[in-house]
Every structure is written in C-alpha cells, then in structure tokens.
C-alpha cells in the first residue's frame, strides 16, 4: 500500500471517524479504493486514511476481541449500530461495482433527496455506510 509522500494536512484533521477492523489491511484497502483515500501513515494497529474532506482511522481490534467475532462470506450487515457514516461518490453505479469487487454490497433501494441520490451498503466486515451521488 503506498503511503502519501506528503501529508496535505498539517496538524489534526478537522473532521473524521474511527472504525474498528477485524482485518486491518483488508478494511483499509476497501475504503482507500472505494473512496479514493490516501494512506497517510499506518502500523500494525491503525491506518490513517485521508481525502480532501475527511479523515478515516481504521483501527485493528485487540486480538482477544477479534477472536470472538466471526464474519461470514458474504458478510452479514450489522444494522444494529448507533451511527452510520456517509460518503460522497461521483457515481452510485460505479461505487456498486467497486463495493462488490471488494467484498461488500449496496442495498437495492436508492433514495432521492434534494440535490443527491443516496444508497446504503456495507463493507466486507458488515459495517453499514451511506453513499451519496450529487446531481444538478
């Protein structure tokens, strides 16, 4: 995985989120690829991913917790969570292809909101997310 040669952000990010991963490398690659994020830095415990709008920290679960979690193939969506991250993409159709290639899925329903269409999906560990495609 290439690490960004130069950190375009100096100091802490203004907005971001942290997501825990059973498989740090795979989940990090999922979000890097889907969202065109750059790996700023990382180690065996976490990867810091960045885009012009957002910073995502993918943090490895402690081994004793990861050992208690089983992820099915395909993954089962974990819908009983208190938070759902949303991300903007250029094309929901293209995102659908990428998500499937990386081991996740988008749900069928597309929601029309003022200025954008939205679609929910889940990553390769079952974490739910929301994608938005802007239109004029």
Biggest sheet layout = 4 strands, mixed
Number of domains: 2
Terminal Cα span: 35 Å
The CATH class of the largest domain, by name, is Alpha Beta
Strand order of the largest sheet: 1-4-3-2
Approximate helicity band: 10-25%
CATH architecture type of the largest domain: Roll
What is the fold named in CATH at topology level of the largest domain?
2,3-Dihydroxybiphenyl 1,2-Dioxygenase, domain 1
Work out the number of β strands: 8
Average pLDDT reading: 91
Which of globular, elongated, flat, extended, rod-shaped describes the shape?
A: globular
SS element count, helices: 3
Low-pLDDT segments, ≥5 res? 1-7
Which structural class best describes the helix and strand composition? alpha/beta
Q: Which series of helices and strands comes N to C?
A: EHEEEHEHEEE
Tell me about this structure.
The protein is α/β, with parallel strands linked by helices. The chain has 3 helices and 8 strands. Strand 3 (46-50) and strand 4 form a beta hairpin. The chain is globular, with a radius of gyration of 15 Å.
What is this structure's SSE topology?
Blueprint (H helix, E strand, L loop, with lengths): L15 E6 L2 H12 L2 E5 L3 E5 L4 E6 L2 H4 L18 E5 L2 H10 L3 E9 L2 E7 L5 E7 L2
Parallel strand pairs: 1-4, 5-8
Antiparallel strand pairs: 2-3, 3-4, 6-7, 7-8
Please give a quick description of this structure.
With 136 residues, this protein is α/β, with parallel strands linked by helices. The protein has helices at 24-35, 63-66, 92-101, and strands at 16-21, 38-42, 46-50, 55-60, 85-89, 105-113, 116-122, 128-134.
């Amino acid at each position: 995985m290439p690490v960004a040669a130069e950190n375009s952000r100096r100091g802490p990010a203004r907005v971001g989120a942290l997501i825990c991963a059973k498989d740090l490398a795979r989940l990090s690659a999922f979000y890097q690829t889907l969202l065109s994020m750059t790996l700023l830095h990382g180690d065996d415990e976490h990867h810091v991913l960045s885009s012009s709008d957002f910073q995502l920290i993918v943090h490895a679960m402690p081994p004793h917790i990861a050992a208690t979690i089983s992820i099915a193939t395909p993954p089962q969506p974990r819908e009983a969570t208190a938070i759902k991250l949303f991300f903007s993409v250029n094309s929901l159709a293209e995102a659908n292809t990428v998500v499937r290639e990386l081991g996740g899925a988008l749900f069928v329903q597309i929601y029309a909101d003022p200025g954008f269409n939205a679609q929910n999906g889940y990553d390769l560990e079952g974490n739910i997310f929301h994608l938005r495609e802007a239109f004029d």
